[in-house]
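Most newcomers find our protein records easier to grasp once they have seen one. Read left to right, the backbone structure tokens trace the chain's path through space. Once this layout is familiar, the rest of the handout is easier to follow. The record below serves as our worked example for the rest of this section:


***
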Amino acid sequence: MDALKSTFGTLYKYKDLVVQLVSRDLKLKYRRSFLGYVWSVLNPLLIMIVMTVVFSTMFSRNIHNFPVYLLTGRTLFEFMTTSTNAAMRSIIANASLIKKTYVPKYIFTLAKVTSCLVDFVLSLGALLIVMIVTRAEFTPYFFLFPLVVIQIYIFCLGLGLFLAQANVFFRDMQYIYKAVTTAWMYLSAIFYPITSLPENLQHFIKTYNPLYYYIQQFRDFIYEGQMTEPRVFIMGWVIAFVTLGIGILTFRRSQDRFILYI
């Protein structure tokens, strides 16, 4: 408990630095870009159009309003991969600053995940546009989607902390993780209905794929317009905080040795 209080106290002390790092990441991403932040909306729209054309003949006949179905899964998965990949490189990328002055090292990982969260929130504008164009039904459950955003943010922060410390000691981690996320995408029912899979594979995904709980909640609130199952909702929070706990624990145990490897 004392360690947790100390962590939050330090975070509050360096809150201005976190804001500056997040702002820097966003400015660097869109520097010299003609459309700037509009790309946060335009990029998922373009990807959705391409994927809709590619997969429409295979899956859309079995899925009502395929563009919304696709985008609700794609936006969450894109946030997860983008934020965790950025977090994984956060310590290595700031090695020179870490060597020169004392700054809590987790600040850099937190800033990367948070900047990706801001970008993700902006990209939800694309989902809103698609829902309006396709005349999707808006229900009161739509306004519950921030609960899913909070859950997946906590999950990505925990996973990002774990990957960040692992990447300091094992630089091959970034290549391994790329292969893992590729397989993860195909096992997350992003562009196909999970009911099209064999029952044993459905059970595997619903049991061992953390993203299933976030994508399912997101689709229930936005796409289906209904309350998600209590088990899915509860497990989403449990997985998020367990992952965060593992990330904090592994990061704190190894952070003192970072200086020897960066």
Q: What stands out?
A: The longest helix spans residues 106-133. The chain has one domain: 9-260. The mean pLDDT is 85. The two ends are 30 Å apart (CA to CA).
